Structure formats: structure tokens, C-alpha cells
Amino acid sequence: MKAAFLTGLQQVELLEIPEPVLKDALDVKIRVEAVGICGSDMHYHRSGRIGAQQVHYPQSVGHECAGTVVEPGPGCERIQVGQRVAVEPALSCGHCDQCHAQRPHTCRNLRFMGCPDQAPGTLAERIVVPEIACHPVPQDMSAALAAVMEPFSIGVYAANLGQIQPGMSVGILGTGPIGLCILLALQIYPSLTLYATDLYQERLTMAERFGAHWTGHPTRLDMVSSILEHEPKGLDVVYECAGEQDTLDQAVELLKPGGRLVLVGIPESPRIHFNIDLLRRKELVLQNVRRQNGCMDEAIHRAQEGHVLLNPLITHTFNLSQVQSAFDLVAHYRDGVIKAVIHLP
Description:
Elements: E1 2-8, E2 11-16, E3 27-36, H1 39-47, E4 49-50, E5 53-54, E6 59-60, E7 64-72, E8 84-87, E9 90-91, H2 97-100, E10 111-112, E11 126-130, E12 134-136, H3 143-161, E13 169-173, H4 177-185, E14 193-197, H5 201-209, E15 214-216, H6 223-230, E16 235-240, H7 245-254, E17 255-263, H8 276-282, E18 285-288, H9 296-304, E19 314-319, H10 323-331, E20 339-343
Helix pairs in contact: 3-4, 3-9, 6-7
């Protein structure tokens, strides 16, 4: 069968590999139908690493995945043949102190699909995953939308971590797919005032469509002073979704004393820094976000019930033979891309 591999910096190739087999009674084989391209995929594509996670070529890739079950293991009770599922890409052990503390996303032995030295990527014709990683989606949900449940679940989890209350003022710095997913996830909270920034006008336009009350382009105006004109006391919560030092600095300046900075973006640099004098005097709260932590079913429910409209996120689709073109498009932010999805035959 065919699967996509990183074979060098900014190089993606389709390779022939053996079809995976069930190794455990609770394993499930899935025929993959769609895989979204994620910003973390781009880190590996452009620089060959995220922090200490170094790519060893060839490296399988992909984790935003949906498909149809073709073979459940003999011990599976929840998942059946023909069921359509979205895949939770973080595989926790279920036995360590973190798992017992209801923190499977920080499992001591966590394996993430498509990460170096962890679990195989999902950008393949068929994959095998544990039953617990399979989340049923409606039969009439498109494959592309089902794949987007993974990034949307991160948005749901991040929104929950913001400890949002009605009437708050909230900033989202970086409105790529994850920033927009957070914006969508915040729609359930009443009376918020939402500020969004990005370097690409297409993403700001989408942010407005998704409910942002104010949007701004950082190179066209002073973000901090412009937002503080509207919110002179500062923002209650800021979601930093760009992973850039400039937006981290802006977030600290924008927050009111006691405000909460939710760190969602993944910096390419292994180190960031803060103005500790300002951070300390404001007594700001820093909250990191580690993936989705059990929010897949909530994300699917919100989409199924029509609480959010996620389809506009999917701006580009490709087939598996176009994987290099798809990665190049996303890596260079071409053609107004927000979320690109690869369809498999």
C-alpha cells in the first residue's frame, strides 16, 4: 500500500510499505479517507524537528485523520465494520500516574501519530490504531470534515482552559486553523468581545465570519495600542496561536492584571522569553495547551448538532498523489490556504 513520508527537508514522497496488521485484540484497521495537513506537520517539513523531536528520514507523517473501519479486533465491542470514525492521534498507555490522574494527554509513555520515534503517521491508505482512539462520526459527515474534528477538538480544549466567563474580552493572536477553531469553540459563551490578529487577510476575513468583533494586521497598525483603545483596562484572556515571539510580547502587553495567557502555538525555536517585570507586576497566569485531552467527542457533538460551521475552514483539497504540492502550498501560505485536506482513494 502507499503511504506518505518526509524524505528530506521540504520533500514528501509516496512509498510502498506493507499493509499494517492487527497486533492486539483491541486494535482496529481503518481505511483512511481524509487527512488534514497540520502546522506541526509543517515544522517537520520545513525544519525537520519540533524541539527535541528530530526527524529521521524517511518519516511517516499525518495525524488529522478520518476513515472507515474495515477490521476490528476480536476484543472490540464499541467499534464495528463499516463504522466511520475520526482518529484521536495521541496514544496514551493508560497505566502511568498521568493517565490515572485523568491526564492522558501528558502520559509518561505517550505516542503521537506521525511524530519521530513514536507512532506511524496516518497519511497512508490503511492504518491500525487502538479501539480507544476511534471516535464515531455521523455516516453523512464528509471525510474532510471528520478529519477536521481533530484540530477542532484542540480548539474546544483550549477554549475550556481559558476559564471563559460571559462578558469577557478575549484576544486570539494568530488565526490559522487552530486559532479559528478556538474562535468557533468560543461561540457557546455569551457576550464575549473577540479580537483577532493575523498576517494574512484571508484568515482575518474568516475570523470575522466566525464572530470576531475586531480584526487587525500586525504590519499595518500597532496591535497593542489599537486593541487597548477599545479595551483600555486590557483583555481578560489571550490565546497565543502563532508561536512567535512578537505575538507573545503583544499578549503580555494586552492582558489586564490577573489575566490569562493561553499558549497554543508551537514556536519553531526551542526557547521563548517574556518581559518578566511586566509578567510579574500583572501577576499573569500562563496556561499551556497540550493537544485535545479527551475533547474529540465533544467536538464531534458540536459539529453534529450544528453548533459550529466548520466547512469554511477547508479551503483546499488534494488527492494522495498530490501530497508534495499540498505540503508546499501550506508551507508557503499560498492561495489563501487555511486548511488543506488530502483525500485518499
